[in-house]
Design brief:
This protein is of the alpha+beta class. The chain has helices at 2-19, 71-88, 93-123, 127-149, 163-170, 293-296; strands at 29-33, 38-48, 51-55, 61-65, 177-180, 184-188, 220-223, 228-234, 243-247, 252-254, 275-277, 283-285, 303-305, 310-311, 324-326, 332-334, 346-349, 352-353, 364-365, 384-392, 395-402, 405-413, 418-424, 430-436. The strands form 8 sheets. Strands 20-21-22-23-24 form a 5-stranded antiparallel beta sheet, with no helix packed on it.
């Protein structure tokens, strides 16, 4: 009986080590990187989409391209993946459910054996009672490691950002400043870009861009230590409120869908730069601002998502279902495409949601406040914005065309927070409205 139990114990332990390489006490494998002529001591986790994931002695995970390895190591990786798939991935969905039930029973049985071992050893110290404990411990370890393995790459840590590098992109733009603490990089701006706005909008809700107080505790916050989410949020059914990214010129970027779930670009709500104004006269993008690429430089991000991952322009590299990719160093980045969803098809990183909001109009927290000045107006059907220009410091002119006639809005603000709007009709008649900004 004793020998039989020991045999079972060693069999289960060997299964555990095979299914979970890099387990407790397993020697690290030495890998040869053909591209850099370096060696890496780590254990194989998985091969996915031509990316190889390894874990070192400190349990840090690194990602490399399969082509980075020597030919011998590439063959080993492929064989290892095939062996693990053969062992673990041949079950159907119903078999997976049955397997989870089996794991539960194995766990209970293992705990029972441990309990029996402790009880018996308290009465008499015999080798057979130690065997119960060893067998129970192996069962518990096997089940727990098997369950941990099913979480996949989503639970992996990713490298932290170099704050100075992040700051260098934002601080290329006048009026944008940054500061950081141990958790976030904070981006401050007045919410007005240094390019023209509004021209090209044919589905207009009568808002015009005014400055916003995105400063101090009301700044935008980007995580410095991003983490992969176990359950990424689809932007088709989530985050229709608030920003999902911040452009490097300090302008927030909202979901490509408006709060009614419509593609804002497809229905004419956006200007030539992919932006428009919200109900608080707050200018923001709904498309990735690729026009900023010239200013930040080729190969640099045009924005950072609110989960902490950078947003780059288009690429020929294969992208995952979230429109992102994992780099050899384990970092993650989003890219853009020409069609909907344009960028960030799902929020790949962990985010905290505002508990006051519900899907689909939920939003990431923290989220700066905007200051509503004028009453929100209804869409002006048939109007198209044909011109927008500066009239000097803190003054703009917007021209829109409706039924073949041109209408003009001149507006400005002073240092006291007083906003003056002059509405000029095609026949030359005018009306004036004045509003006073108040602190919230």
């Amino acid at each position: 009986m004793k020998n039989t139990l020991l045999a079972i114990c060693f069999f289960l332990l060997s299964l555990h080590l095979f299914a979970h390489e890099g387990g407790h006490g397993t020697p690290l494998k030495q890998w040869e990187l053909a591209t850099t002529h370096q060696t890496v001591n780590a254990n194989f986790i998985k091969l996915e989409d031509d990316n190889v994931y390894l874990m070192d002695a400190h349990h840090a995970v690194q990602s490399y391209k399969l082509s980075d390895f020597s030919a011998a190591d590439q063959n080993y990786i492929k064989a290892k993946r095939a062996a693990i798939q053969s062992l673990n991935n041949h079950h159907t969905a119903s078999e997976s459910l049955e397997g989870s039930n089996s794991s539960w029973w194995l766990l209970m049985f293992g705990l029972l054996l441990l309990g029996v071992s402790v009880y018996k050893l308290g009465k008499e110290r015999k080798a057979m009672h130690f065997t119960y404990g060893i067998l129970g411990g192996c069962l518990v370890t096997f089940v727990s490691c098997k369950n941990t393995a099913t979480t996949g790459i989503s639970a992996l840590q990713v490298p932290s950002h170099a704050v100075s590098v992040m700051q260098s992109f934002f601080e290329k733009f006048d009026g944008v400043s940054t500061h950081a603490d141990s958790t976030y990089l904070y981006i401050s701006s007045n919410g007005l870009p240094n390019h023209d706005m509004m021209v090209g909008i044919s589905n207009w809700q009568q808002q015009v861009p005014i400055p916003q107080n995105y400063t101090g505790t009301n700044s935008w916050a980007i995580p410095i230590h991003p983490k992969m989410a176990e359950d990424p949020l689809s932007t088709k059914t989530n985050l229709l409120k608030g920003a999902i990214a911040v452009a490097v010129n300090g302008i927030p970027i909202f979901n490509p869908l408006n709060n009614r779930g419509e593609d804002a670009n497809a229905i004419g709500e956006l200007d030539e730069w992919g932006g428009h104004c919200g109900r608080a006269d707050d200018y923001h993008y709904h498309l990735p601002p690729l026009h900023l690429q010239d200013q930040v430089g080729e190969g640099n991000p045009v924005a950072y998502a609110v989960d902490g991952f950078p947003v780059y322009g288009e690429t020929t590299a294969p992208l995952d279902e979230y429109l992102g990719k994992t780099n050899p160093d384990g970092s993650y980045q989003y890219h853009t495409i020409k069609e909907y969803p344009y960028f960030i098809a799902g929020m790949r990183g962990e985010v905290q949601l505002d508990p006051k909001t519900k899907a689909p109009e939920n939003q990431v927290y923290p989220q700066p406040r905007t200051q509503e000045l004028r009453p929100a107006l209804r869409p002006l059907r048939g109007a198209e914005i044909i011109d927008f220009k500066s009239l000097g410091e803190n003054a703009y002119q917007l021209t829109y065309r409706l039924e073949g006639k041109d209408y003009i809005i001149n507006y400005s603000w002073d240092s006291t927070g007083t906003y003056t709007y002059q509405f000029i009709n095609p026949d030359g008649t005018t009306t004036v409205e004045t509003y006073k900004a108040t602190e919230k």
